[in-house]
Each structure stands twice: as structure tokens, then as C-alpha cells.
Design a protein that fits this description.
single chain, 304 residues, alpha/beta, 2-enoyl-CoA Hydratase, Chain A, domain 1, 7-stranded mixed β-sheet, 41% helix
Length: 304
């Protein structure tokens, strides 16, 4: 028998793979492995300020969407489109952490695109990304903590209404809007704000690192900037928009599917369990009105 080399027959899986590859042009783009995909998640609105008719950004309402985005097969990156003036520090941080956890687990980079505003808690969300891209007119920054209330004690005295409040614990009625303000209460709330601010500063420094160029007293004063200054200070990386940037990086055929919350059998978006619980606890129209006023106040800080 001759010892001359004879090519071994190609395995069946190899033949199938080649056959399917040759038919790739017939497949819809979403099934083609050669077309890059970058799923897009929109994070828009006030963070944490919520009522049944005005659900804000919370981990409960965003977790499933984020998990779906990071589960897209062969995703090159996940793009976050951010348009938020901030809100709840804790909800901002919970969403931030979930994004970072998913990014590290799936080994998928994150790009943040700031639209009108990425400020305060909205900027914290942007810091979950490996790069921050903004428009020339985007508002960026506001790394600080703010809180406010109203005082009705003089009005109550004028109209003859008596406040009756029963507590157990010296600080349970702290900053009650129907009682005169106490200096020790103000000192206490400022200490809490200072602690939250310190954690926010540490988060920004950890995420932005050597890219930060400004002095701490400027960067973390609560001030905000448009793109040029934000990039100079290292709070953002580039100017651009979602479509142009992704096409430049991944080619003109890049797919950018918008990932939204899952829908129920009847076509309605399925909210997180936290939102479902709020439906039963809400006082109704009054809650919606207060929520709308709070949201309006946050947006108005940035001239919007």
C-alpha cells in the first residue's frame, strides 16, 4: 500500500459550519455573526422619584432591561443613553453597581452617551461606563448632594392650626416642616450630606482615575458644565452621538438594538416587584402631583 499522504475527509460539523457560513448572506442581520451588535439601554428621567403614573429610574425598573442587554449574544459593548438630572443617591448607586457587576461578569465594555443632562445621580450612572461621550450642549457634572423642604410653622400659627405630634426618640421629628427649624437638626442633616458627598467623590475618582484634571474644590463643588469644559476637566472623554460613534468604531453595519423591559402576554411592560408594591401603597393623585413637582424642580436646576 502506498504511503503517500492522503487528505483526511472533512468532519461533518466542519462541513455544516462551512455550508451555513456560505448561506450567511441569506440570514436576517440579527442572526449573522459577522455583523457587530451593540445593545442600547435608555436611562432617562429622575432617579428614585416615583409614583404609579410616573415611575422613576430605580433598580427595580431597570434591572431586567440591563440583564437582557448584557445577555445579547456576541455583543461588542453595551451603550447607555443617559438623560437624567439625578435624584436618589441610593438608587443611583444601586443601578451603577448592577451595571458594573454585569460588565465584569460578561466581560463586556460599557459606553455612556449623555444627552441633555448627566448630572448628580445621572452622572453617577455615566461613571458606570468605561467611556463617557456627550453632545456639545450636554450638561455634565453636579457632583454634590442637595436636600430641601418647606417650613409651614408660621402659616399654621397665622391660621390657628395646632400641630400635635407624638414620638418616641428625640430625633424622630427632625426637620418636620410643621415645626420650627432647630440648628441641631440642620447640623445633623448636613453631616449626613457630607458623608454621602464623600462617597460620591470616591466613586468618581475610582472610575475616572488619572483622567480627572481639575482641582477637587472645582470638580466636586456641585458645579456643572457643557461638553468642552467637562472634557477638559476629565469628567467626560469625547463629543459625539450614539449612531456616529458606534458606526465609526464598529463599522457602518453595526446593529444597535434598543433593549426595553420585557412585555407581558397583553403587551404591557413588566415592571419590577418594587414598582408593583407601590401601586398598593400610593395615596393616588396627591402622590403624582408631588412626584411631578419634585421632578420638575430637579430638571429646572439645569435650565430645562
Amino acid at each position: 500500500m502506498s504511503n503517500s499522504s492522503v487528505a483526511a475527509p472533512e468532519s461533518q460539523p466542519g462541513l455544516v459550519s462551512r455550508f451555513l457560513s456560505s448561506l450567511g448572506w441569506l440570514l436576517p442581520p440579527r442572526f449573522r455573526a459577522d455583523i457587530p451588535v451593540v445593545p442600547v439601554v435608555r436611562l432617562s428621567g429622575v432617579i428614585g422619584v416615583s409614583s404609579p403614573l410616573r415611575p422613576g429610574l430605580m433598580l427595580a425598573t431597570t434591572a431586567k432591561t440591563l440583564e437582557r442587554a448584557f445577555s445579547v449574544r456576541k455583543a461588542r459593548a453595551v451603550a447607555l443613553v443617559i438623560n437624567s438630572p439625578g435624584g436618589s443617591p441610593s438608587q443611583s448607586h444601586l443601578i451603577f453597581r448592577r451595571i458594573r457587576q454585569l460588565s465584569e461578569e460578561k466581560k463586556i465594555p460599557v459606553l455612556a452617551f449623555i444627552e441633555d443632562v448627566g448630572a448628580s445621580g445621572g452622572y453617577m450612572l455615566a461613571c458606570a461606563a468605561d467611556e463617557i461621550i456627550c453632545d456639545d450642549y450636554s450638561i455634565v457634572g453636579s457632583i454634590g448632594v442637595v436636600g430641601g423642604s418647606f417650613g409651614f410653622d408660621k402659616l399654621m400659627e397665622k391660621i390657628g392650626v395646632e400641630r400635635r405630634l407624638y414620638t418616641s426618640g428625640d430625633s424622630k421629628a427632625m426637620l418636620d416642616p410643621f415645626l420650627p427649624e432647630k440648628p441641631e437638626d440642620v447640623k445633623r442633616i448636613k453631616a449626613v450630606q457630607k458623608d454621602i458627598h464623600a462617597h460620591f467623590i470616591a466613586l468618581v475618582k475610582a472610575r475616572r482615575g488619572a483622567r480627572l484634571k481639575g482641582a477637587d474644590k472645582v470638580l466636586f463643588s456641585g458645579e456643572f458644565w457643557t461638553a468642552t469644559n467637562a472634557i477638559e476637566l476629565g469628567l467626560a472623554d469625547h463629543r459625539g452621538d450614539l449612531r456616529s460613534c458606534l458606526r465609526e468604531r464598529y463599522g457602518d453595519k453595526v446593529r444597535m438594538p434598543l433593549i426595553s423591559a420585557e412585555k407581558s402576554f397583553f403587551g404591557r411592560k413588566v415592571p419590577g416587584i418594587g414598582l408593583l408594591q407601590r401601586f398598593g401603597d400610593s395615596p393616588g393623585l396627591a402622590a403624582d402631583l408631588i412626584s411631578a413637582l419634585e421632578a420638575r424642580a430637579l430638571w429646572s436646576r439645569y435650565g430645562l
